[in-house]
Amino acid sequence: MKRIFSLILLLTLTALSARAKSALSGPPPSTAPVLNEQQRQADYTRRIDEVLDFAAAGAKFKTNDPAKLDLVTIGARLVRGEDYAHCSQRVIELMSKPGTGPFWMFPTVSAAYLGRGRLTPAALASIRAAWRTRQLRGDTENHWMMYYASLYLMSELYPNDPAESWYTGKSSAENLAEARAYLIHWTDLSTSMGQGEFNPTEYIGEYAIPLLFLASWAKDPAIKERAHLMLDWIFAELATNTLNGVLRGPNSRTTEGPVAERWNAMASSFSWMLFGNTPPTAGYGGWGLYFALVAKNYNVPEVIYRIATDRQADYLQRDRARTRRRWRYSDELSPLVYKTNYLRTDYAVGSTRGGMIDPIQSHVWDVTWAEADPRKKHNTLFSMHPHSSMVAMQSAFICYPEPMIKAVTMEGKPTYDSPDKILGSSPYEQVFQDLDTVIALYDIPAGERFPHINGFFSKDLVKVTESPSGWIFAQGGRAYLAYRPLAGYTWIKYSHFAGGWAKVGLDLGGRILTSPHLKNGTIVQAASASEFPSFAAFQAAINALPLQFSLEPVPTVNFTTLRGKKVTCTYGQTPTVDGSPLDYSKWKLFEGPHLNSEVGSRRLTITHGQLERVLDLNALTATDRVRTP
Amino acid sequence: MVIKNITGPLVGLLLCTLGVAAPTPKPAYDFYICANINRNYTIGAEILTMNGVFQRDAAGAWQHLGYNDMGVTAVAFDPRDHRVWYTSALNGLWRTLDGGKSWRMCNGWEMTEARDVAVDPNAPDNVYLALPDGVAVSSDRAQTLERRENGLPDRGKFTQAIKVDRTRAGRVFAGCELGIYLTDDAAAHWRRVLPTKEMVTDIQQSPHDPHVWLAVTQSAGAWRSTDGGVTWVNFPNVPTSRALYNVTFDVTQPLRYAIGSWAHGVLTSEDGGLTWQDRNQGLPAPHRVWRVGVDPTGLLYASVFGETLYVSKDFGRTWRADALPGTVVNNFLILPRRAN
Hints:
The structure holds 2 protein chains of 2 kinds.
Chain A: H1 2-20, H2 37-56, H3 71-79, H4 84-95, H5 102-114, H6 121-130, H7 141-157, H8 172-192, H9 204-217, H10 221-241, E1 242-243, E2 246-247, H11 266-275, H12 289-293, H13 302-309, E3 315-322, E4 336-343, E5 347-351, E6 365-369, E7 380-384, H14 390-396, H15 404-409, E8 429-434, E9 437-443, E10 453-457, E11 462-466, E12 472-476, E13 479-485, E14 490-493, E15 511-515, E16 519-528, H16 535-543, E17 547-550, E18 556-560, E19 566-570, E20 576-577, E21 580-581, E22 590-591, E23 595-596, E24 603-608, E25 611-616, E26 621-626
Antiparallel strand pairs in A: 1-2, 3-4, 3-22, 4-5, 5-6, 6-7, 7-10, 8-9, 9-16, 10-15, 11-12, 12-13, 13-16, 14-15, 17-18, 18-19, 19-20, 20-21, 23-24, 24-25, 25-26
Helix pairs in contact in A: 2-3, 3-4, 3-5, 4-6, 5-7, 5-9, 7-8, 7-9, 9-10, 10-13
Chain B: H1 2-17, E1 29-37, E2 52-56, E3 62-65, E4 74-78, E5 81-89, E6 92-96, E7 104-105, E8 116-119, E9 127-131, E10 134-138, E11 146-147, E12 159-164, E13 172-176, E14 179-183, E15 191-195, E16 200-205, E17 213-217, E18 222-225, E19 233-234, E20 246-250, E21 253-261, E22 265-269, E23 277-278, E24 289-294, E25 300-304, E26 309-312, E27 320-321, E28 327-336
Antiparallel strand pairs in B: 1-2, 1-28, 2-3, 4-5, 5-6, 6-7, 8-9, 9-10, 10-11, 12-13, 13-14, 14-15, 16-17, 17-18, 18-19, 20-21, 21-22, 22-23, 24-25, 25-26, 26-27
């Protein structure tokens, strides 16, 4: 009897201990897929409950003081059926000082919907009254997504209110029609031409949260289903582009922190919630907490889950996307982006073709290796041209030439005008990728503000060897890496900005290869350590690869890759592989073993093994089937 | 009363008889600015400062009108009824019919980040909106808006300034990325009257002679037209190395012009543009002048970015700090006064 009691006590303590151990500080989760559906669902529910616990306990403020509750804590308490009186009182206080745009609007929508039947009538009325305050729509796609999803839901919640009761001066029906039109426009554009803010490390929340709100609360079944399909679409892209839950490769927008510490982004918190295969970031993704408030209304389809977690073979995925809208200095409003991603167990290589994407926050290419615990690891290698210009600012923003550069450095982009930055795209960079080979060429005009290129060499690389052959060899995790600078270089210390709002750079280790030559280039070849008997054997194999290059009149490279492809790249010309020029015009919207879509189709086929799910934004259907082997 | 009523004409007749021109009654004007006082604001935050449209009152103080909006770039009034006014702003076009008490966002999602707004004084139901991707027009006091861009280029139609010729209905100038465009038929057709390679940043019509227009640009200097905007002549003494942000006439002196520039500060001419003077002494350095404006009495104002509004009684020779610290003024407007 005593032994049984002891066993029960032990099990209870173990369970409590496991429950008390937060995913934030615990060991990294297993990256193995959970194939049992019930277990997978239970794990998902447990993770969401962990986030709700954190949010309900005051989130980052860790406060129980009713006077300090924010809307996410209020939302979590409402979901859990707690503390309605204090929540109501605090909502009234918060609504007496309304904010002014999408980041204020969608949290208030959560309170308005979650508060139904829970908050006092006065509190609910205070939310509605606050929507008389003028709201700014912002100037990016993610701003508009949040703005119109919020306006849509509030207008649907109060369907018959007159124009004078809304800040827009439009009736509920007019607001609803405008919001609906934009939401349909955005989904149609994104599913036919590609996303503008593709693969964002942080801004995934700006899309996923409003889409989940719409999928949860929209009364119109067409909007509800459209939002649900778009959630699947975005998460399928996330799953396909992650390496053990870490979003790597090119990003339309990222920030100073995750471009080096690839895990440390809101996308990782979404991977953790949805797939459970990487640790969540601090605060479970910050305001991404709002997703958790209604996350139980969404179940990630198994086929998407399996893409993220069940990697049985290397794969190559080619996709299209759009650049940010260009107001000036461009013949096109939103030029196309072509993405290549090659994922293996030990590492992944991803790129766009270079050129300007987003003027400030784009990340163009990298090799990122897998780490058992990716936290605090700078597990990536790449080069870039640190471009900073008034033309770039005026192209993307409505600004005058002079003030914008300084302004952006004070608004979440601290390194934009730094010569040592490692974040951003450049009109003077052209990138080619074939499997795990990247060739980046640079032809920087004289007079450019920062006339050099930067190569990021992480503190977490080992065995860094500058070979007399001109190659620099290194190992990252279980990946062997070869980096060939095409011009002379020196080394400087890398200063790590932990995020967009970081005030100072930290010396955490790592170096930047800086090469002050206008005509320049980088070749990177990656391989798995398991492919070679030794690091020396890898170096010998790379040194034996045929390579010819010249920098005048423009950079040109003839290289036979480790995979046997004869590649020719000349700056300003179409690359050739084994003598055949690449034809980007034939690229599909998505093409690969997991995601396939024709340009203009608004239809995505998601595949893993025998599992298939077809998202059809024309018919507003999702169709699952098990394919015949 | 009767005597009083005939005194004026009699005096005028007497002065004419003596060979002295009768003094033209000075029109009364109101003076407005569109201003932001942005202290570390980011999208979503509560606005802690007062922004938008301000009117200078009789005591010289700035009185805020209408909504608190961070992104107002210009204001235009219906000449028939000054309770009806329009603002171009981040969200697009806003209209009030009751002097700023209530507002309507006139555009849908297809239009954004409006740069300028103008009302046709000879067809006041017609409202013109400058947009980053062209021009929109309303014929019903902005109840509805439509694109009218026939003749504007497919690309290069970022429109920073839109101005209506007060002498003829439907005659409108658009300052675009690739030059100044003119329409004579309420934007049904546009034609380019001044080509540029970069932005036209401002266009203004003389309050003294409607045939005289001024324009400034990002990289092509300053220009004047004396034939109603059909042909333009460059001011050779105005620098072209950096952007000029705006230009203004002096309603009290026909030959006085002023230019505002981030890089060049304040430039003035008092001889109709023959010579230009740097008028930055007394302004905080660097002279990041966002806009210049002249009030109905001839006071010259300069909005220095992130500083405050500065005012000069001697057309830029000396300056003193005025009110509204931290202000960025996007637009100065002199408006002939109406009873209402």
